[in-house]
Each structure stands twice: as structure tokens, then as C-alpha cells.
Amino acid sequence: MNQPAPSGLFISDVDGTLVTPDKRLTPATLEAAGELRAAAAPFTIVSSRPPRGMAPIAAALRLVLPFAAFNGASLVGPDLELIEALRLAPDAAAAALALIEPRVEAFVFAGDAWLVRDPQGTKVERERRTVGFEPTVVSGFAAVIDRIDKIVAVSDDVSALDRIEAELRARLGALVNIERSQPYYVDVTHPLANKGAAVRRLAARLGVDLGRTIVLGDMTNDIAMFRVAGFAIAMGQAPDAVKAAAQAVTRSNTEDGFAVAVRALVLPRLAGARVG
After folding, report:
1. Beta-carbon neighbour count of residue 49 at 10 Å?
2. What are the Cα distances from residue 205, in Å, to 45, 185, 195?
3. Which terminal Cβ of the chain has fewer Cβ within 10 Å, N or C?
4. pLDDT digits (tens, 9 = 90+) for 161-180
5. Where are any strands of DSSP class E within the chain?
6. Does the structural domain 90-189 have CATH classification 3.30.1450.10?
7. Residues of the chain with CATH 3.30.1240.10
8. pTM, to two decimals
């Protein structure tokens, strides 16, 4: 007998939303996830992280639904089985790297691998803590150019990244999707890979009307999902542009904003969807 489609769906960003700045899930966050399970409220996550870097979060939250990685480029089952993957065209990947590498460092993600040229480079240690695994050190990226999921331009010089982001958009805007997942990261993915498209694909797989989706996020790359969801919530520490794109604002990720949003906004709305 087929299970009925869920009447609603809650999708949360991970970094800056579910986890604290030091990448922890707080007790309040885990309790709120338990309340979602107890209410049979469909819940999953979307992130710029690779699937392997999302796996510990998915396990701690006891997710049973597919989730979206690489800003929506990949849909993955809770057992990490790849469902769908949108990868960069080789020419587009090569062009992006040619623009990025002479000026700042690049991280390249291809399947389960995170590739870097310099293991001591900018933000490598931070990314290691975030994704929970070691990078593979390479002399170049030609060997994986036909299977790249995401390229990241990395720099502590925000103004330099602003210029690189603008140039990527001007030169490659039709061939790639460009998102700022952190002030120090510019993410380059397949042109159809964004969090809005991920919400659409997840909702379609589950048979949920987009009008009954709820999303939660904190960065400009989350605005794409704010635009397609039925109800969008921004974190308290989010930039003003992100808050302006949402219908509600919760507390920051240092004040258990996820848990506050679940109890005050998500669970009441999903309960209403079930009876509506």
C-alpha cells in the first residue's frame, strides 16, 4: 500500500543555521529535531557542503528523507546513496578555475573527494573541521575536470572575492551558478544547481505542494529557496538582504534560532497544513 504524500515539508540550511559557528549541534537543536520526529513533521536539510560532510549532521538528526548537497547540485539518500547529480561541464569548470586560480585559492569537490593544491592554505583547516574529512592534495585539477560538483574560490580578502564573483558572473553567468555561501567563499556549481531548485526537486519527489514548504537559512545562497518556498525564515544573524527576503526572522545560531523557529513557526504551520 502506498504511503500518502506529506502535507508539508520543512527544509533547513546547515552552516550558520543548524550549527553554531564552531559547527556544533546544540542540545536545543537536537531536542527540536526530536519534536519534529514526534510530530511526524517531514524534515530534511540542504547545504553547500559535500554529501560526506553532511552525513554526521544527517545521522545526528536521524533524517529519513533525501537531502541536498553542493547548494542543490546533488540529491542524496540518508544512507548517502546518490540519487541525482548536476555536475559542471568540463569547459565551464576549466574556465572558472582559470579565472580563480591566478588570484585566490580554489577548493574542488568531485564526488567524495575534496581537492586542494596547498594543505596549509586559506580556510583549509576551517573546511576540514566543517566537512569532517581530509583534503586530497593535488598539483592540478585536470584529472577530475569532467566530474566536478563544486568549485570554491577562497580568500579572506572579501573585496577580492567580490571582484572575482562579479567577473565570474559576467564571463560565465549562463554556464554556471554562482553563490556566496560564506563571506570568504564563492561557490561555482552547475547552472541549475541552487537551493531553490533543490527545494523544488525535494518537494516533487515527496509529492508536496511548494506552497506548503517551509525553509530556514542565513546566507545569500539561501535566498533562492526563500523565493520558491511557501514560507521562509531567516536566522537572526543573517545579512539584511537575507532577512528582507524572508517572511519571518528567528534568533541567531548562537541563540538556538533553529529550535526557536521550529517551536514558534514550523510546527504550528505544519500542523495547520495537515488539517488544512
Report:
1. 24
2. 14, 30, 15
3. N
4. 999 999 999 999 899 999 99
5. 9-12, 43-45, 67-69, 74-76, 82-85, 105-110, 113-116, 136-137, 150-154, 177-182, 185-189, 213-217, 231-234, 248-249
6. no
7. 90-189
8. 0.88
* CATH 3.40.50.1000 domain position(s) in the chain: 9-85+193-275
Residue matched to cell numbers 534568533:
251
Q: How far is CA 167 from the centre of its chain?
A: 23
CA distance 96 to 227: 27
Per-residue pLDDT tens digits for 53-86: 999 999 999 999 999 999 999 999 999 999 999 9
Mean pLDDT, rounded, of the chain: 94
**Residue the block writes with cell 520526529:** 37
Strands 248-249 and 231-234: parallel
The domain over range 9-85+193-275 is classified in CATH as 3.40.50.11540? no
Q: Which amino acid is at 92?
A: A
List the alpha helices (DSSP H) in 62-105.
90-100
Q: What is the pLDDT of residue 112?
A: 87
Q: Which residues of 63-76 are buried (b: 16+ CB within 10 A; e: fewer)?
A: bebbbbbbbbbbbb
Query: Residue 213: CB partners within 8 Å, gap ≥ 6?
Result: 8, 9, 10, 11, 199, 203, 228, 229, 230, 231
